[in-house]
Amino acid sequence: MTPLTPASGHISDATDQTFMTDVVEASQTQPVLVDFWAPWCGPCKTLTPILEKVVTGEAGKVKLVKINIDENPGIAGQLGVRSIPAVFAFDKGRPVNGFQGALPESQIRQFIDQVLSGTDGAKEIEQAVVEADEKLQAGDPGGAAQIYGAVIEADRTHAGALAGLARCYLANGDAARAQQVLDMVPEDKANEAAIKSVRTAIEMMAEAPQDAEIDAARAEALADPGDPAKRLALAEKLMAHGDLAGASAELLAILSTDLEALEGQAKAKLLEIFEAAGPKDPVTVDGRRRLGSLMFS
């Protein structure tokens, strides 16, 4: 077996002589995975293509260096490699994690995510996203969008930043631009909670009602406040208009008299609001507290 052709500029072969440059020095700027393999190793033939695929998908956040231990036994011996395939992750010039054997793609992705999450750059990015989240929740979508945009420039696959930027557009009533941002999300992150939450919010706003329709629904609900169906109709229009706080208030008013009102529809809509708003939004935090109080009072 000859070394596989590098799948991208982030994948290369190395030797004992080039290890310091290709791995130790290179890991000062980004994590480097070292794949120890040999031509006779069957599991290596399974693992290496998966490593190449996942590393290529990370678009430069991590490098892969492959070392044939038959031709280069020195570094493998120093690291105590006893069986192959063996993979070591280096960051800032030292090994920080590793595994042996052929793992499935899902576990390799988890391994790389763990490595990346521990880097200084990753920590700075996460701190920036937290700051942007706080600005958005404080009613400053413009300031939040600037930070989310900077994060996306550094990591175009960051689900939290992409979801946050989409929420900034939703805050300004621009569901079309929000959807364009979601279209940038890579397939393997499409079902992350933050992305699903924004997708739910966009779906709610697909057919936003006119102000006159909301006014009419509100008038009907006020005229007959004891009718949960009319309050539910108002809540649905408020949801579609993006007024999740107003919709939540109407639904909680219904649930305050009957937790199973309208065969559970009111509670189901409230939970849908929580998903659309996201777990940290005040609408969700306050709504869950008030719902819990009703359920256990």
Order of helices and strands: EHEHEHEEHHHHHHHHHHH
Percent of residues in β-strands: 5-15%
Q: What is the CATH domain class of the largest domain?
A: Alpha Beta
C-alpha-based Rg, rounded: 26 Å
Helices and strands in order, then pairings?
Layout: E1 11-13, H1 19-25, E2 32-37, H2 42-57, E3 63-68, H3 73-78, E4 86-91, E5 94-100, H4 105-117, H5 120-137, H6 141-154, H7 159-171, H8 175-182, H9 193-204, H10 211-223, H11 228-241, H12 244-255, H13 265-277, H14 282-295
Parallel strand pairs: 1-3, 2-3
Antiparallel strand pairs: 2-4, 4-5
Helix pairs in contact: 2-4, 5-6, 5-7, 6-7, 7-8, 7-9, 8-9, 9-13, 10-11, 11-12, 12-13, 12-14, 13-14
Question: What this model shows, in words?
Answer:
- With 297 residues, the protein is α/β, with parallel strands linked by helices.
- The model is unreliable at 1-7 (pLDDT under 50).
- The longest helix has 18 residues, at 120-137.
- Helix 5 (120-137) runs antiparallel to helix 6 (141-154), helix 8 runs antiparallel to helix 9 and helix 13 (265-277) runs antiparallel to helix 14.
- It folds into 3 domains: 11-118, Glutaredoxin (3-Layer(aba) Sandwich); 121-204, Tetratricopeptide repeat domain (Serine Threonine Protein Phosphatase 5, Tetratricopeptide repeat); 211-295, Serine Threonine Protein Phosphatase 5, Tetratricopeptide repeat.
- The protein is built from 14 helices and 5 strands.
- The protein is elongated, with a radius of gyration of 26 Å.
- The protein has helices spanning 19-25, 42-57, 73-78, 105-117, 120-137, 141-154, 159-171, 175-182, 193-204, 211-223, 228-241, 244-255, 265-277, 282-295; strands at residues 11-13, 32-37, 63-68, 86-91, 94-100.
- Strands 1-3-2-4-5 form a 5-stranded mixed β-sheet, sandwiched between helices.
- Strand 4 (86-91) and strand 5 (94-100) form a beta hairpin.
- Helix content is 58%, strand content 9%.
